[in-house]
Amino acid sequence: ALLSGVIFMLLIEKVQKFGPVVIMAAITAIIYFATGQFTVVLLLTFASSSIIAELIRYMFGYKSFTGNLIAYAVFSLGMVGSPLPIWLFGNSFFESIIDQGMSSSYVDGLRNLTSSGMLIGMIISTFVLALAGGIIGRSMLKKHFIKAGII
């Protein structure tokens, strides 16, 4: 969330209408699928977060930095869908990764790290780091891309 703020801000600056956030989520989902890390949970979180982010951009106005910043933070929460099955499916998730060949010591370590506090911390830190990434992205946009005439 921190690092992709530049890409997000550049994209939405260039395309000030409905759609670029959904396209960005679709591209990310394709990458996840191609690398074998795609799940239904990830699809649902990507789809819902990108649509909500697009609605936020629409409601605030496509040129609104505040709206775009909040939209980026919401969009970034879509990535939470990658580790979310750990909390959603619990023991069945752990059993499935053991069946896929993970060592029981790895699974035990993962199980020990899985808590409600960790999930809440992951969501909050993703949102906060996305806000920081969006601010950095806007700064880079003004400092480099606008000055260079790219935008």
TrEMBL record:
NCBIfam families: Trep_Strep (TIGR02185). Keywords: Membrane, Transmembrane, Transmembrane helix. The keyword Transmembrane applies. The keyword Transmembrane applies. This is Conserved hypothetical integral membrane protein. The chain crosses the membrane at residues 18-34, 69-94, 114-137.
